[in-house]
């Protein structure tokens, strides 16, 4: 698959690689990327990603994996686990975020988390367990009657493009080098309602996109209530699918609260019943490293944003082992906590 190509990964060091380099045994379950050797390292255990819609036994299989993870924690043969549970995301796209089907998917995620905690209690390691539940995005209602469609195809020449990447809320255009100015100027001059047109270097710092080599020369974003139509009459559209989801994401989280994600954490050294202020996704990394007892690499996260959730502040310590279970928007991160002083 495309995600197996090392060029997506080698410009940064994922936390599981850092954990392995620090002697922690990491297990990754259905977590895309675990199949890739990154900077000479792989996780100790890798169960490759499996699509939700082709997997009718996903809930029971995930529970079985969690039982196995807890057993390995108990036997001291595993230190850090990352588990991807796709139900909430997949069903949210298909049926919409406010649908009964999505509520059933949330119940499924609850069942999975409850099973993990029950197993940890049964194995007498509940007090040693760090559990972090996060999501990589929110979800908003994008049923056809809920938005207006922006069609740029009549206004540009597809022959000027190498490719148009995706559609909906966020699009990247890759014009041929001598056509960048032409395409940008034309789209900018349209002043289309709901459409934002950026050169790569004009992107807001909030997006953390203008420095990466993966960002294409022109980026289009849609305001809430709008979606960008994919190109129809050309092979320049990637991917080719014209499907419009009933639930979607990718909008600016500062404009639409539905885009905001979740962060829940419990474990040694973490305050109980504490509600932290807003954190950014880049702040998760420092929390994970602290619960694992490893020194974080230089990163874009802020320790100030998360230190209030720790007993004794950022300098507090714990002696447990951290199981990380990621549920994206159902990711469970679980680890036995080896927190440093």
TrEMBL record:
Keyword annotations: Cell membrane, Disulfide bond, Glycoprotein, GPI-anchor, Hydrolase, Lipid degradation, Lipid metabolism, Lipoprotein, Membrane, Metal-binding, Phosphoprotein, Signal, Zinc
BP GO terms, sorted: lipid catabolic process
Catalytic activity: 1-tetradecanoyl-sn-glycero-3-phosphocholine + H2O = 1-tetradecanoyl-sn-glycerol + phosphocholine + H(+); 1-(9Z-octadecenoyl)-sn-glycero-3-phosphocholine + H2O = 1-(9Z-octadecenoyl)-sn-glycerol + phosphocholine + H(+); sn-glycerol 3-phosphocholine + H2O = phosphocholine + glycerol + H(+); a 1-O-alkyl-sn-glycero-3-phosphocholine + H2O = a 1-O-alkyl-sn-glycerol + phosphocholine + H(+)
Entry keyword Nucleus: no
Membrane topology: Lipid-anchor; GPI-anchor
GO molecular function: glycerophosphocholine cholinephosphodiesterase activity; metal ion binding
Database matches in CDD domains: Enpp
Annotated function: Choline-specific glycerophosphodiesterase that hydrolyzes glycerophosphocholine (GPC) and lysophosphatidylcholine (LPC) and contributes to supplying choline to the cells. Has a preference for LPC with short (12:0 and 14:0) or polyunsaturated (18:2 and 20:4) fatty acids. In vitro, hydrolyzes only choline-containing lysophospholipids, such as sphingosylphosphorylcholine (SPC), platelet-activating factor (PAF) and lysoPAF, but not other lysophospholipids.
Name of the protein: glycerophosphocholine cholinephosphodiesterase
Organism of this sequence: Rhipicephalus microplus
Lineage of origin: Eukaryota, Metazoa, Ecdysozoa, Arthropoda, Chelicerata
């Amino acid at each position: 698959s495309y995600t197996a190509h090392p060029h997506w990964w080698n410009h940064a060091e994922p936390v599981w690689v850092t954990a392995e380099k620090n002697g922690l045994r990491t297990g990754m379950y259905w977590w895309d990327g675990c199949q890739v050797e990154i900077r000479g390292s792989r996780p100790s255990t890798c169960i490759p990603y499996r699509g939700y819609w082709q997997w009718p036994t996903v809930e029971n299989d995930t529970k079985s994996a969690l039982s196995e993870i807890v057993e390995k924690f108990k036997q001291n043969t595993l230190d850090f686990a990352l588990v991807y549970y796709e139900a909430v995301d997949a069903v949210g796209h298909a049926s919409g975020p406010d649908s009964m089907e999505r509520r059933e998917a949330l119940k499924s995620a609850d069942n999975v988390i409850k099973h993990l905690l029950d197993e940890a209690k049964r194995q007498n390691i509940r007090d040693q367990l760090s559990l972090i539940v996060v999501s990589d995005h929110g979800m908003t209602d994008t049923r056809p009657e809920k938005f207006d469609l922006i069609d740029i195809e009549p206004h540009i020449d597809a022959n000027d493009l190498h490719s148009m990447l995706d559609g909906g809320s966020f699009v990247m255009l890759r014009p041929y080098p001598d056509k960048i100015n032409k395409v940008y100027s034309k789209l900018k001059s349209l002043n289309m309602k709901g459409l934002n047109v950026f050169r790569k270097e004009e992107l807001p710092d909030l997006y953390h996109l203008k420095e990466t080599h993966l960002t294409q020369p022109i980026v289009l974003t849609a305001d809430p209530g709008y979606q960008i139509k994919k190109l129809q009459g050309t092979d320049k559209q990637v991917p080719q699918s014209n499907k419009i989801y009933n639930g979607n994401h990718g909008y600016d989280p500062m404009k639409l609260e539905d885009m905001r994600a979740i962060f829940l954490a419990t474990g040694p050294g973490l305050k109980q019943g504490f509600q932290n202020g807003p954190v950014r996704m880049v702040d998760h990394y420092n929390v994970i490293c602290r619960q694992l007892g490893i020194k974080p690499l230089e990163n874009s996260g802020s320790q100030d944003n998360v230190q209030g959730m720790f007993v004794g502040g950022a300098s507090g310590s714990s002696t447990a082992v951290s199981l990380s279970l990621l549920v994206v928007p159902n990711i469970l991160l679980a680890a036995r906590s080896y927190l440093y002083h």
